């Protein structure tokens, strides 16, 4: 890359492999004696090598991410997504994707074992509980729980605080004598009763609750003591799983679809006390039998491997954040900000849920001027805040603010809400 | 970065942001007149900027991929994996991952609809069939099929050609009067009978086959005509799904776990004639009821979204290859090469399966000198050929050579096999 030199410039001749073309003017001080002009040429003999490692793949710029308030599947932690992306083609030198691994090979074994171990740490799961990674969603567990725990004639109590508890009850009726001992339906699922007011059946095999109602935004802050002879409490924790600490020992069974707080859809986690396993009804499909899965460490058949891997990355991330106490603090902070914005709006925004049971995860609200709701959704979407429409059975708006929704996302939403109100007062 | 200069070297002073440290000796020719020595320092005033765009993520070098003969989950097409990797963080400008999408949003709707549409094209599925994307594996279908198609007292015929058909039979016994009308067990599952020899029950509700036995490597090349009054044939096609054309109209139900030929684990595809839907037994869990899923286009609850997306990428890839006729040609070519190597080995290698029913997908074989099998596995693994161990219930070796196993992989295996034989003759 030599070019004509002016007397006082030195041109760097670089090896042809290096693209940069650099011209370096030279500051010279020469004696002013009458000398012949000289020209000097620099010849680089050392090849320029960039010692830096190749840059990582350019992440989609942060500004390209939407602010995703979907109720599930839902936002996942960015660092988890980037990590999954970087190792999708070749997982940690194995020469294959997690999606291609034999579920019985050593690589995937390490993945599922670490996922279970991390989950046990997060929730402080006592050793007398089995942890199962299953397919079929919470909806399959609506059947699996009574099939595994009951005889067809066993009474079972359902405390129904929203539509998911109601669905669980309806499915259970096929397999046991399920009974609703309390329902919030008359008040449009905006409350949880004082537990003393709930008349439980002492002969019931278990009491079932939905710990967090995704559609109605109603969350148990503490749990009823089961008054049945087995002393069993069962909870669907799909939409607040791993959002806060839980005393697992209070429960006989906890189940959760992963696709709210802990992973993509297709994985359902079941935490079941081991002594409850092994008496499934004869009509139980093998894939719904806890014993089959517990005896085979969730590998009776091919588990949902990639989903389990993603859950494992999320569990690691939660532990790195300091565990569920820390996560709960963040969730309380985010939720408080949003509910305060609603409550301080002088009725422009309204959340119908009784204050003491408002969910940290799902925040339903309406506009006093309901005719503005479509515009609200549309304008929010223009600002890249999406999935704010309320569930089709309820209408209005709903912001789901799971673990992975950053505080900045909620701040953006409340700023928008205040501005929207100001423009439509 | 200035350092002491020798008279004839010029040191480049670069801005501190640029890491490369370059020293450029200078070739000089100075007049030999008695001049004072001069020293010249180059001061770079132009910052070195690399005008090249950031390099694309370095793909894992082709040589880093192992040759993966696993039976499922199994090898996936490289271009599919790379595409999935590139869009994992941000799918096509949506600002979110497929794993974060609401299953009812427009983005995922487009994904699942395209996947279904492409599958219908691939298999030429007639419009009177529903296509369902479910969770639960083929193992759940072992229960779902009789629950949906039969009353508990209905006789049903099972033609058992391997352990998967046997498992389907055992599960079905909970839900119908299942009967084995032929079993290959006595001959260690190495045959398929002449269909005329199989005595079917004219009152049977359906005849069930496993179209390709993954463990035993036995594949139906044509199908029995059902002799029952409903005229229904049902097939588990998990391990040869989309490996060759199929006349769907011959079947009442086809089901397949995706994790052999078409995707990761966690997705089960069910193709069911619509008129068979709607009479599920009362004890059927809602998640096993074809009507619920058909009425809701697989969105009754949250489907396994990422798995469906991956299947969609695979379907696109199969169509780009020219469809299932082309894919079948490749599979026949690969299988022929491997079986010929086995058959030409003068007994060093043996495949027990009767030649006319040898699977194009799963090739079980043993070594005459069985004491060499561990060494075979070990040496193959050194050559990056993995998962060649036979199923634990059978022993020996097994090479699964699904669609995504390239011909080069099979060529590599047979070269190794010939060399291994030469060294151990």
UniProtKB/TrEMBL annotation, chains A, B:
Q: Which domain of life is it from?
A: Eukaryota
E.C. no: 2.6.1.52
**What Gene Ontology cellular-component terms does the record carry?**
chloroplast stroma
The coenzyme or cofactor needed here is: pyridoxal 5'-phosphate
For the keyword Zinc, the answer is: no
Query: NCBIfam families of this UniProt entry?
Result: PRK05355.1, serC_1
The protein's GO terms of the molecular function aspect are: O-phospho-L-serine:2-oxoglutarate aminotransferase activity; pyridoxal phosphate binding
* Protein name from the UniProt record: Phosphoserine aminotransferase
Family designation:
Belongs to the class-V pyridoxal-phosphate-dependent aminotransferase family. SerC subfamily.
Carries keyword Transferase? yes
GO-annotated biological processes: L-serine biosynthetic process
Among Pfam families, the record links this protein to:
Aminotran_5
InterPro entries found in the cross-reference section: Aminotrans_V_dom (IPR000192), Aminotrans_V_PyrdxlP_BS (IPR020578), Pser_aminoTfrase (IPR022278), PyrdxlP-dep_Trfase (IPR015424), PyrdxlP-dep_Trfase_major (IPR015421), PyrdxlP-dep_Trfase_small (IPR015422)
Q: Where is the Aminotransferase class V domain?
A: 68-413
Q: Which UniProt keywords apply?
A: Amino-acid biosynthesis, Aminotransferase, Pyridoxal phosphate, Serine biosynthesis, Transferase
Protein encoded by which gene:
LOC115736477
Catalyzed chemical reaction(s): O-phospho-L-serine + 2-oxoglutarate = 3-phosphooxypyruvate + L-glutamate
Q: In which pathway does it act?
A: Amino-acid biosynthesis; L-serine biosynthesis; L-serine from 3-phospho-D-glycerate: step 2/3
Q: Which organism is it from?
A: Rhodamnia argentea
Gene3D superfamilies from the entry? Aspartate Aminotransferase, domain 1, Type I PLP-dependent aspartate aminotransferase-like (Major domain)
